[in-house]
Specification:
heterodimer, A: mainly alpha, two-stranded antiparallel ribbon, B: alpha/beta, Rossmann fold, seven-stranded mixed β-sheet, 17 helices, 45% helix, globular
Chain lengths: 316, 429
């Protein structure tokens, strides 16, 4: 039983290692540019990994934020506008983080005040943020784009900087999640909210904390988005919201949160997705087919995870 | 317990079958769908040729002057008639003729998508990028220059400032497409065609003018300038008669202002591509307004407003490409004038990339990357449209064949420029 549990716990990591091995083997057969490909994978994973790592705190509570992509976009657009006004990269960074945290806080406060499921408030927030993004494009840009000069962020568009941001944020979250009461209590709340409440743990308080930490990740993701592609449009970060959900599940995070939540699920999931995408390209699978294969794997992962959990979940 | 196990196993088998099925589908004929920025479709002419042996012969018997390689194609529009036509030419003619592989991006929506797509293409050994997506062309050029991958703009052009910046880059191959001046002239001639017939009341669909897209801004500016010229003494648009001033005003406003231009009236204007009910209602209101005789569209006017003009005398003029839908629209009267691109538009730019990758880059006499201008085919009748459509759609004998393109392999700048400029339908047919 212990071996089975261990295998289930490290299954996402094994999956990632298999994908990495597959990438190198198929890459060698197809004679691809492996070094450039690895850089590509980091570039295409890092924003999702950062945002998803923060989102783990929300998912651990058994909640679900659907507005993360839109929040990333609005934070990036606001930061872009601030840069165009001030020409300060530092202020741009601060704006991205502050706006993202504020949006996140608003989500949690709305859920707390109106006693609504977080999912519902984030759906409303998604609409508001999408409209706000269009407004910002009109106010601060040409109506279709806000263009931060590439020269302003070029020095930061390096693998080392991106990995540094991801590493620092991951360690911060790892510490909070695994070595402080914050993580333990959130797992408790996610696993059995009633029992947690009876022991004096406040759902509202830990919701706010989770959203603030997630907002920090969204802000960092927004900043990294600008660094990667400084021409911002209504489609900026449009896929991040869905990619975060997929990455978290790919990484082995239980969708219902609770005690089996893992902070590293997001990073493993984000990189697994990118390796899988690159393998699809190498196998000449067009995107429609690739998406379906990913969907099938997604279902498979959830099925295995849910099947293992069904008999163990405490009554809620 | 056994029942549960059986259910699990059955579910796993079904999932496996689903995966196997979709994978099998993908490994077959894959000519219709595009890949995402991270997952792209690869057109493999070698395998295609193998399966097509009994149907289509190789496009040409002429010797290929250089070595084949992979080209990544960035597209922000994967489904329009224009995009499909050009893709058909590249994948079904050029790829087979030159044994090339074209790796298409998915329909790109922003500059991050463009960058990710280029990264994936370079990873997969694309030696050149043909860009038909313009969210951030400077970033694309810089990225390709840094990676040592050749880059060209297809069916478009850099603006003057961008061209000055990048014309000397080693890996910037150049552009073949309508310049801003050509776009202006296209709008001008479209409006003039009706003004010469005595039409005095227009509506304009300005498309991406609201996003300050220079292509659409110049087309609208050309239309307005034609109205100014035909509007009689003292006619002006917002007090302006100079093309540069009109373009500047459109860039500032993001739209054309309705009102009198001398004795010509611009009754209605609609921009953007909201495509929701409210937007279509505005469009219907615009074309059905009293007095409107012609809708001048910077894009596909008949697709968006053809239904609204049914049962009216309002004529529609569009800029797009030669496609069956437009012939049918012309035949049934919902389209009256078409300035269209043809499918082989990308032939010369392909040859420019082909030369560059094979160590024979084309430069102008000053040593800069070329920016070749090319215009549209104009048709004002269903018969004329059909004639152009038939020529454009003949993939065995396309507008620009392998033999003609081969002649460009060693051509100097002047000869290349003359070839591209000689695109008129009457000459080619």
């Amino acid at each position: 039983m212990k071996v089975k549990n261990l295998l289930l716990n490290i299954a996402p990591l094994i999956g990632l290692l298999i994908l990495i091995a597959g990438y190198f083997v198929i890459g060698r057969i197809n004679d691809i540019n492996v070094a450039y490909g690895l850089k590509t994978i980091v570039n295409q994973s890092v924003v999702v990994a950062v945002v998803a790592t923060g989102a783990v705190f929300i998912y651990t509570l058994g909640a679900f934020d659907i507005s993360l992509g839109a929040s990333t976009a609005v934070s990036a657009l606001m930061a872009g506008i601030v840069y165009l006004k001030t020409e300060s990269v530092g202020l741009m960074f601060l704006t991205a983080v502050c706006v993202a945290v504020l949006v996140s806080l608003l989500n949690s406060v709305l859920a707390g005040v109106f006693h609504l499921p977080v999912f519902v408030t984030t759906i409303a927030m998604l609409s508001v943020l999408n409209a706000l993004a269009l407004l910002l494009l009109n106010l601060g840009g040409t109506g279709s784009e806000i263009k931060v000069p590439q020269a302003a962020v070029k020095s930061l568009d390096t693998l080392w900087f991106k990995l540094l941001v991801l590493g620092a944020y991951f360690l911060f979250c790892f510490f909070l999640f695994d070595f402080t009461p914050i993580g333990r209590r959130q797992k408790f709340l996610g696993g059995n909210p009633l029992c947690a409440k009876l022991t004096g743990i406040s759902l509202n308080r830990y919701s706010v904390i989770a959203f603030v930490i997630c907002g920090l990740g969204v802000g960092l993701g927004a900043f990294l988005s600008i660094v990667y592609a400084p021409t911002l449009t209504r489609n900026t970060a449009s896929s991040v919201g869905m990619d975060v959900i997929i990455a978290i599940v790919f990484g082995g995070m239980p969708v219902s949160g609770g005690a089996r939540s893992r902070i590293y699920a997001a990073v493993i999931g984000a990189f697994s997705m990118s390796f899988l995408s690159q393998i699809m390209v190498m196998l000449n699978l067009n995107s429609g087919v690739g998406q379906m294969v990913k969907a099938a794997i997604f279902l498979l992962v959830v099925f295995i995870a849910a099947g293992e959990r069904k008999m163990k979940t405490l009554p809620r | 317990m056994k029942k549960k196990l059986a259910t699990k196993v059955l579910s796993l088998i079904l999932t496996g079958i689903m995966m196997a099925s979709v994978t099998a589908c993908g490994s077959g004929a894959d000519s219709s769908s595009a890949g995402s920025s991270a997952t792209q479709k690869v057109a493999d002419p070698a395998s295609d040729a193998g399966t097509a042996e009994s149907t289509d012969a190789a496009p040409a018997e002429a010797a290929v002057p250089g070595e084949p390689f992979k080209i990544g194609v960035l597209v922000s529009d994967a489904t329009s008639a224009e995009a499909l036509g050009r893709r058909h030419y590249l994948e079904d003619y050029i790829a087979k003729a030159y044994n090339m592989v074209f790796v298409y991006s998915d329909e790109l929506g922003d500059s991050a998508g463009e960058k990710a797509a280029i990264e994936t293409m370079i990873t997969n050994n694309c030696k050149a990028i043909l860009s038909e997506s313009s969210f951030d062309r400077p970033a694309q050029i810089e990225q390709c220059e840094a990676a040592g991958v050749y880059y060209a703009v297809g069916s478009g052009a850099l603006d003057a400032e961008q061209y000055e910046t990048y014309k000397g880059y080693t890996y910037y191959v150049g552009s073949v497409g309508p310049s801003d001046a050509t776009e202006f002239e296209t709008g001008y001639q479209m409006a003039k065609y009706y003004l010469d017939q005595g039409v005095r009341n227009f509506a304009i669909f300005g498309g991406a003018t609201v996003y300050r897209n220079s292509m659409h801004v110049n087309r609208v500016a050309g239309m307005l300038k034609a109205m100014v010229d035909a509007g009689g003494e003292g006619a002006s648009y917002q007090g302006m008669t100079d093309p540069g001033a009109i373009i500047g005003q459109l860039m500032a406003d993001g739209e054309a202002k309705t009102g009198a231009i001398g004795d010509v009236t611009l009754s209605g204007y609609l921009g953007g591509y909201d495509m929701d009910d409210a937007w279509f209602a505005k469009g219907a209101e615009m074309v059905q307004a009293p007095g409107v005789e012609v809708l001048l569209a910077v894009g596909s006017g008949s697709d968006f407003f053809g239904t609204a003009t049914n049962g009216t005398d309002v004529k529609i003029a569009s800029v797009d490409a030669y496609a069956q839908d437009y012939y049918e629209a012309m035949a049934n009267g919902s389209l009256d004038y078409l300035a269209g691109k043809f499918s082989a538009y990308d032939g010369p730019v392909f040859m420019a990339l082909y030369r560059a990758v094979n160590g024979n880059p084309l430069r102008d006499p000053e040593g800069n990357a070329p920016a070749f201008d090319i215009g549209y085919w104009i048709s004002t009748s269903a018969e004329g449209c059909k004639e152009m459509l038939d020529l454009d759609g003949d993939i065995d004998h396309p507008v620009w064949t392998m033999e003609e393109l081969n002649a460009l392999y060693d051509a100097d700048y002047a000869a290349f420029e003359a070839f591209v400029g000689d695109y008129a339908f009457d000459r080619i047919r």
